[in-house]
Amino acid sequence: MNRPRHTLIRRAAILDVLNHLTDRDRDLIDALGAHQVLTTHQIARAWFTSPERARARLAVLHHLDVLTRFRQPLPSGSAPFHYLLGYNGACLHAAATGTPWPRPATIAERAARIAGSPKLAHTLGVNDFLTHLLAHTRTHDWHLAWHNETQAAERTGGMVKPDAHATITTTDTRVEFYYEHDTGSEDHNRLAAKLERYRHLIEPMPVLIELSSSVREANLHKALSTRTYPFTVATTHTGLSDRPAGSIWTPLHGTGSTSILDLGARR
């Protein structure tokens, strides 16, 4: 069956876009395909040497419809752009992953859904920690394998829905963990109930929880003070997570903080 002429023209244009893409652009397409939305700041820290270089390249990718973007309204000042895959970017990602090519309307609907989602702050919080880790890998001997919420849930057989699953490998250390991001919208009982579900996993591993504030972190430790788990539970809070390799993780019932590589490290 012959394809409509407009479809053939559109696909030829997408192939032409390929000539303008760098390896870093392709990495960004892969990341947005997996993690939905990233801000200018997050993209700059993970893939660029300066915010200025990031903004310049993102403008080009937006012009090529590789990326689309939106801004959240603020009472004062201007918010950073939030970037998602545009139509050409989504088609390139579909081609790379062997999934059906989207319709243009689907991309617009998806962007509107993400921009208006009540989970946007949570998604950006998870991705903020991810991009801090990615930034660290650029200058240190770290290899990061990061799996999003859907992939992490598949790993648990659907028994738990972690916000992410990750493995960090260095020349002499390997640590694997589940990650939970707290925005402060759930009470501690719900967090405790989620931790209980981790007990049933065949392969236990550390569960790292980033809380929205130091006060909330302290309150969680108090709420869990009588509970023990057959795996490491460690917490940090927003404000410390921008230095992911530091000693920012406080184990449950522990004294003092430790680094992510020392939590359940396998050597």
Top keywords for this entry?
Arc Repressor Mutant, subunit A, 10 helices, alpha+beta, 267 residues, 3-stranded antiparallel β-sheet, disordered N terminus
Summarize this, please?
This is Protein involved in plasmid replication-relaxation. This protein has 267 residues and is of the alpha+beta class.
Layout of helices and strands:
Elements: H1 5-18, H2 23-35, E1 38-39, H3 40-47, H4 51-63, E2 67-70, E3 82-85, H5 87-97, H6 104-115, H7 120-139, E4 143-147, H8 149-155, E5 164-169, E6 174-181, H9 188-198, E7 207-211, H10 214-223, E8 233-237, E9 250-251
Parallel strand pairs: 6-7, 7-8
Antiparallel strand pairs: 1-3, 2-3, 4-5, 5-6, 8-9
Helix pairs in contact: 3-4, 3-7
Pfam families: Replic_Relax
InterPro entries: Replic_Relax
Protein name: Protein involved in plasmid replication-relaxation
Protein architecture, described:
- The protein is built from ten helices and nine strands.
- With 267 residues, the chain is of the alpha+beta class.
- The longest helix has 20 residues, at 120-139.
- The chain has two domains: 5-117, Arc Repressor Mutant, subunit A (Orthogonal Bundle), CATH 1.10.10; 121-262.
- The protein is globular.
- Strands 4-5-6-7-8-9 form a six-stranded mixed beta sheet. Strands 1-3-2 form a three-stranded antiparallel beta sheet.
- It comes from Actinorhabdospora filicis.
